[in-house]
Amino acid sequence: MASKIGVVGSNMVDLITYIDRMPGPGETLEAPVFEIGCGGKGANQAVAAALLGARVMMVTRVGDDVFADNTVANLGRYGIDTRHVRKVPGRSSGVAPIFVDPSGENSILIVKGANADLLPAAVDEAAADLAACRLILMQMEVPVETVYHTIDWAAQRGIETLLNPAPAAADLQLERIRHVTFLVPNESELALLSGMPTGSREEIVAAARFLVRQGIRVVIVTLGRRGACLVTADTAVEIAPVAVAARDTTGAGDAFIGAFAHFYVKTQDVLASLRQAAVYAAHSITRAGTQKAYANAQEFASFRQTHAPDLPVV
Ligand code: RIB
Among the atoms of ligand 1, which is closest to the Cα of residue 254? Predict the structure, then answer.
């Protein structure tokens, strides 16, 4: 049976408007298309891993509004264990108004809603099930104290963790996350956390190495259309991007992390898993939406065959 992945993180309802251009201040513009879908960085990562065949459990919070039941049912449809998803009375669910331009680039607002009520006690409540996980994923759309608590809790039990420090949070303290196994920032999140410039490849490696020296075992810097960079104490390796025509880049970083988690718990091979994840993320931007853009295992296998035929089948 596949090893289990835990996600202590967010879910959102994505309200996606496809626009010709952003309106200016005071301007009203008509946009051609609107879609509603399930999103949130935590749920997206959970769904990507589950679609590829991982066993996934999620610890998250929904509101007591019209979105809540649909969010729980959606996670269930992907086979994700939702026993630790709870409704928060008097709260809205998390929502994310998203704007996607004709090049596929996105701008996102988030309203945390019930995600703000995912407190450290939720981790303690789910402890018996989280203890069976091989890897626990976190992001920054829930309270920072919950992230710290999860990292400490997992480190004490020898369970590996991955933190995606997104969206960038100025109050995230490096000292409190140094026991995380994998840190997956983009360039601006890396700059914020390290206090160092990240404008060139050399600067990115130096900033990531600084984080490794603080105790983080592996730093994986996501670079959008330029791929990613894996930095450990003794290596710095580029993960090449896969060229595709972008339709909608929303959630590509989450697709990358969910796929990495799946392949890593399966193989224990970080570099090979990152190469698979880069292909999975490339596929996700060829389709519109977030979770609904993600490939299942069969779709991914056929995309990999045409776009990265040299990659081994895992
Ligand atoms: O990373 C993409 C996600 O960010 C969206 O699904 C949105 O919900 C926000 O959380």
Answer: 1
